[in-house]
Amino acid sequence: MRIGIDLDDVIAVCAVPYLRKFAERFRVDLPDEDIGWQLLDEMDDRVSAEQRDRFRMDLYNGPFFGELDVYEDAPEALERMVGAGHELYFITARAERRRVVTETWLREKGLIEHAKAVHLKPQGDFVPTTRGKYDATGSAVYKVRLAAELSLDAFCEDDELISRSLAESGVRVWLFDQPWNREVAHPLIERVTGWSDVIAALGIA
Ligand SMILES: [Mg+2]
Question: Which helix (H) or strand (E) holds 60?
């Protein structure tokens, strides 16, 4: 199979460190569990949209992406997938200007050699978004287009809108279960708890 693989919250542990830094910066409390992107939607009365946008840009312009941890079971799973003959493509909605930090990180973590290519979102794909909130619309358009161009059979993803868009375009999705994606359901979307479920689904566990 030809398989697209998202990075943030699929390969890289991203939402938790982001929210922890956000909470530290704006002195807001986080719950003990289910820390995730859905919490940002509840910050309207605490932190302005402008402040949230500024925080995100400053964080992403710093060392953030180069310091993320990898999900523990990801490296071996990717190795098995490649060993079984599957073709892997890292496809992230991170902007193209994050390529150096992204590829350096993938190399340091020993992951880049498993992929046929690393795709980041071209700057031209920018779609105006609701201020202060992540809007996945442009990312969904980008990933659906790439899935078609690369003739992908399946995609590993955590975002609801992107997963639904991929499924509606006929691409099978392994949806990595997260507190912010519990609503989505589609015949082509299979919810997984992590990489062990993906390799089990591929029959290579
Ligand atoms: Mg993601």
Answer: helix 49-61
